Amino acid sequence: MKLSIIGSGYVGLVTGTCLAEAGHNVICVDNNQAKVK
Question: How far apart (Å, rounded) are the C-alpha atoms in residues 5 and 3?
Fold first, then answer.
């Protein structure tokens, strides 16, 4: 499944990581580029 996470704070990063490890295609979007990398 393709998913987008808007906001890469603690909750967004943990959620995105867990979903990616489960095999989903995850894109994180945030206004702070350092968090997304």
Answer: 7
